[in-house]
Write the structure tokens for this entry.
Amino acid sequence: MKSKTTLYFASSIAAIAGLLFGFDTGIISGALLFIRHQFDLDAVASGAVVSCVLLGAMIGAALSGRLTDLLGRRAIVLVISAVFIVGALASSLSTGFITLLVSRVIIGLAIGVGSYSAPLYISELAPVKQRGALVTLNQLAITVGILMSYLINYCFASAGNWRAMFAIGIIPAILLAVGMFFLPESPRWLVVRGRIDEAKKALSRVREISEVEEEVASIVRSVQDHQSISWKKAFAPWVRPVLLLGVLLSFLQQVSGINTVIYYAPVIFKMAGFHSNTTSILATVGVGVMNVLFTIFSIWAVDRLGRRKLLLSGMLGIVICLGVIAYAFHAKNLSVDLKWITLAGLFVYIACFAFSLGAMLWLLVSEIFPLEVRGAAMGIAVAMCWLSNLAVSFSFLPMTKALGMSDTFMIFAVITTIGLVYCYFYTPETRGVSLESIEEHLKARKPLREL
Ligand code: BGC
């Protein structure tokens, strides 16, 4: 009982890194409305304020593999909680455009490292059977963080207090630091460092005593086979199909336009005809609630319906909603009805995203890579996710200016349609399949779909 409680406590504490990921990326949606005025920002500068956090995250994700190998998973999470605190303080106190950019990059670095190391820490601590649910807990924390940011935005919107919006991020960062301080290091990392006794001690906090010896022995065996992160092996011919799948899923997650909705929802709602800032932010809270609810649905459904059903049906829903929103904006001078169509379209869109590309990306990426290349391949896929996020978020406002909202959403719809066809043919069903079987399947060079 006690070991289970510690396991859930440890996973929940580590998932606060996911919550900060969601909070610190989502908070900009409301803050931007006021920062734009205060610092007199045009579309490109506003895009930069939103995107610089993503630039930091991309760099952080790319460095994560080495950092987490060097310092340990627990230590690195402790470091990033300090970085989160510094970044939140600095952005809430920023005096101009440049200081704001720099402090948002600092927060971004912490987000990028956290997006890699928190799920890694959870997965290395979790028993095989519970790994799927516990990894998806991290995505749930991301969506809760986004919702929290929307609620904070809403609370401070009437006062226009964007500094307070950023400052609140300090609270979860402190919780992360304090909680992490009392948690064990990843037993797997300790074994890699040759600290076997400490590994046993760490594992005994999250397992029954009778399970510890055997599990540590099996970690020792697997570590002897696969010493450290292997970048070269990540590109070996037998790994390429899954590497491509991981990278493309990351790319597709972002070009579905998710973060144009997450970061710019109030701006979109205003363009659709909801005139007051407060109403737009309130509608955005609705988007956040849908995101959380349908992520919870995905945790329930993923082991019952399987990954493919959720992924493919959700992507189909995304394509339809994007088409509807594009149409609503195409019909110029939105009448009241079309305003509501946009709202409904965005709500259904976010629901479909939550249980498909949202939850399934992070789960599949943690499942499909063979152990010996997991660090490197996951690093590449996660960095791709941030790079695509950066590209889409940065270009969104300039694109809507140049092409209009309708064509911009149409482009997302077309790319997601192509992605849907790709996923239909190449995404394997990993439900109930052991990670070892996935690895054997790949080594036998069988097509992914036949898993
Ligand atoms: C994505 C984020 C996105 C979030 C929305 C995550 O899976 O990686 O970019 O903001 O889902 O819930």
Q: What stands out?
A: The chain has a mean pLDDT of 90. Residues 313 and 356 are 8 Å apart (CA to CA). The radius of gyration is 22 Å.
